[in-house]
Amino acid sequence: MAERWRPVWADIDVDAVAHNASILSGLAGPAALCAVVKADGYGHGALSVARAALAGGATWLAVALVEEGVALREAGVDAPILLLSEPPVEAMPEAVARRLVPSVYTHAGLRSLGKVVGDGGFPPVGVHLKVDTGMHRVGSDAQDVASLAQTIADDGALRLDAVWTHLAVADGAGPDDRDFTALQLDRFEATLDRLAAAGHRPPMTHAANSAGTIAVAAARRDMVRCGIALYGVAPTPALAEELAALTSGRRLRPVLSLRTRVTFVRELDGGERLSYGRVRSLARRSTVATVPIGYADGVPRRLFDQGGEVLIRGVRRPLAGVVTMDQIMVDCGPAGSAPVEVGDEVVLLGGQGAEEITADEWAGLLGTISYEVLCGIGPRVPRLVGRGEGRHPT
Ligand SMILES: *Cc1c(COP(=O)(O)O)cnc(C)c1O
Questions:
Q1: In sequence order, what are the residues at sequence separation of 6 or more whose Cβ sits closer than 8 angstroms to the Cβ of residue 238?
Q2: What 3 state SS string does 359-386 have?
Q3: I need a labelling partner for 390 at 20 to 30 A (CA). Which of 17, 75, 164, 194 fits?
Q4: Annotated catalytic sites, by residue?
Q5: Smallest CA separation from ligand 1 atom 8, residue
Q6: Where are the extended beta strands (E) located within the chain?
Q7: Which ranges in the chain are annotated with CATH 2.40.37.10?
Q8: Does ligand 1 lie within 6 Å of residue 206's CB atom?
């Protein structure tokens, strides 16, 4: 897009990506770091995150969709790209032609893949066989793994490069969660033992997401698949502390900040009710700033009821009314007290002065997780890729 007139943007700090990648690869090493950049890099922009993560020590990338892998290849990314689910049979030719590394877990998928590779005269394709150990989303049942591995071994077009699984509650602090993670890893080991007994020894195994990487040393294995931590957000606040304890105090740095500017200011009398629904009245005559971002950009409508705040001039200020599609109204305090002006920077997520609003803060207010907050920032918000700016001292 040529011109942008609306002052709304997300700063993407690629130095923070590289910093986070170096913390994670330092922690997990000698295991390789796979940077998970699905869903456009959790809303940050997959390409810039992928490049920065590779510069920071990641050697693999992972995406959810063949389409996402193709986009990275078209942009010139050459690193191995893992597809986290088995590609639809219709997408196998493109997956192969683009050298994407398929996850596999069905005989139909293997047949289709083998045929595409054989018919196309491609060199043998290495696959990552996924086993379900308790997440129950995708993956082969334990009892089918050996026969899938045999099908791969019997097909000259395919090669078993890895066996892997995914943890359901590695971020859970409760004893049940830790027990279930241990159970998943035990099931995984048992599956690998059965495969070895049948003569299948994959050169690589992997199991850990960000939470597994931080909290479960036994899950790190040959490669860790990190998403949220790469973006500078620990899977849970407790895991931020656990990570700092493991890395002599090094902390993840948030990569994204969501910023805009005041476009309209006025004073309104006490008792006035703002925005749709006229839900709450001003306690006294107040300065109210209008800010040009709304739920169409990923600022959830419920943020108002739940006590959401923004930063202006380094001060936390509450929303004064319901979030609308394109704009919010902010209570800047008693009239005359706060010199807020059109053009002032407004921070929805990120730091300003000594204050910071994190994706975890929103997630806590909204009853969700940071992942959903970050992925929810809409396509109408331009991502401005830059370095540092010192908003988050190391
Ligand atoms: C999304 C995803 C990851 C990354 O998870 P984080 O919690 O963001 O680190 C890893 N593995 C699989 C299979 C995934 O789907």
A1: 173
A2: HHHHHHHHCCCHHHHHHCCCCCCCEEEE
A3: 75
A4: 38, 276
A5: 227
A6: 8-13, 32-36, 60-63, 81-83, 100-104, 125-130, 158-164, 204-208, 223-226, 256-261, 264-268, 286-291, 309-312, 315-318, 328-334, 345-352, 355-357, 383-386
A7: 256-393
A8: no
Task: Quickly name the fold that domain 256-393 has.
Answer: Lyase, Ornithine Decarboxylase; Chain A, domain 1 (2.40.37)
Q: How far is the CA of 36 from the centre of ligand 1 (A)?
A: 7
pLDDT tens for 297-353 read: 999 999 999 999 999 999 999 999 999 999 999 999 999 886 899 999 999 999 999
The encoded tokens of residue 306 equal 């739940």
Per-residue pLDDT of 174-222, as tens digits, reads 999 999 999 999 999 999 999 999 999 999 999 999 999 999 999 999 9
CB distance 234 to ligand 1 below 6 Å: no
Specify the pTM: 0.96
CATH architecture for segment(s) 31-246: Alpha-Beta Barrel (3.20)
Q: Which two tokens stand for residue 34?
A: 């796979």
